[in-house]
UniProtKB/TrEMBL annotation:
Residues 1-18 have a biased composition (Polar residues). The lineage of its organism: Eukaryota, Metazoa, Chordata, Craniata, Vertebrata. It comes from Octodon degus. This is Iodotyrosine deiodinase 1. Signal peptide: none annotated. GO terms for biological process: thyroid hormone metabolic process; tyrosine metabolic process.
Amino acid sequence: MLRSSRSQRNMLSTSRSPTPAIPRRKWLRERRNFMNFSVRDGTAPSGAHTEPWTFVVVKDPDRKHQIREIIEEEEEINYMRRMGPRWVTDVKKLRTNWIKEYLDKAPVLILIFKQVHGFAANGKKKTHYYHEISVAIACGILLAALQNAGLVTVTTTPLNCGPRLRELLGRPPHEKLLMLLPVGYPSKEATVPDLRRKTLGEIMVKV
């Protein structure tokens, strides 16, 4: 069970416990197989350990409002023309629309970019294997960490906003926006849709 936002906030403001040291094996000292690898230090696995992600943390109110303006402009077009009536009908039960006031209200916005490739020391392009899957896994670990800290967020994927947001935040062309997370403590007035989740029997197959 998650702690209340008040108790969690108190805990975060008073804790002084250092992060325990994590012993690491030396790569060249012993043989390894895939069972030796684990996520032990709070990071995510990635294809060939390329770590193809950039997390842009936005706190500045003016910059957050600029992000909101870009997203609302594109989202209005999405709802009116691009998404189609079936899509709009399917999300209607979630009470979503192109007005995104939470982008101003949230104290922090985290924009996660996938790096479709990297650069080697000599300046040549470096392949990033499975970059979208790798970044998606990293996003999942981040979501779990935020929830564990007593924070709340909502996963958003601003449709057709990526290039403008990338330019606004000064990110290079080889980075593509994958997800945006508004992050903060839950409001006292916050409500959550009572959505039915699939049962374990519906999502798991034993072979």
